[in-house]
Amino acid sequence: MKTADTLLILSALTFLSGCASLESCRRYLPAGAVPNIANEMISSGGSPDYTLRYHECRARQGVQASQLQLAEFYAVKDARIQDFKKAAKWYKAAGSARSGNTYVYSAPVGGEKYGRVIPVQTGSSSPGDAEAQYQLGLLYLAGKGVQKSDRKARKWLARAAAQGHAAATARLSRLQEQTE
To answer: Which residue of 85, 86, 167, 180 has the lowest C-beta tally within 10 Å?
Structure first.
């Protein structure tokens, strides 16, 4: 079995397991709470732990909004929680293109030796979140949480700019002027 097939099967099984639904992640929230990671909670000394765990659960499920929330949470300027490596991980996840498919494993049928992984259309494809792409580009430029790389920074900034992100377009133009 190829490594890619194994990863698809594992992804499908993870999707089908207990942490595959919104309700399974709600267990991290107090009754009636609305999931939100806000800077006010951090700066006021409140505990964002329950929403952090909720968004980590949803981010692992591939929910782009939660991936972006986590990245922004870890990129804040509060030294107690700042972790640029984790911020880069979640910006990359939120900024990566989506196929719109979920993969489901089907056991072997009849005389087949191996089962199959079947793609199921579960939504529209997406080019990734432009703000996440922009922020990841900035992390690559600064070398925060990732190895400094102008090439990778340009790649992520170009993806954001292609979606009309004004700040990414401006930053890419300034980078182009610097190299000329």
So the answer is: 180
Question: From CA 130, how far away is CA 117, in angstroms rounded?
Answer: 30
Positive or negative, the CA dihedral 130, 132, 138, 143 is negative
Kindly state the tokens that stand for 119.
């793609």
HSE-up of residue 130 (Cα within 13 Å, Cβ side): 11
Residue 39, amino acid: N
Nearest to 35 by CA among 56, 10, 6: 56
Cα distances (angstroms) measured from residue 85 to each of 58, 66, 73, 82: 19, 17, 12, 9
pLDDT digits (tens, 9 = 90+) for 78-125: 667 889 999 999 999 999 988 777 778 888 888 888 888 888 877 777
What is the C-alpha separation between 180 and 176, in angstroms, rounded?
7
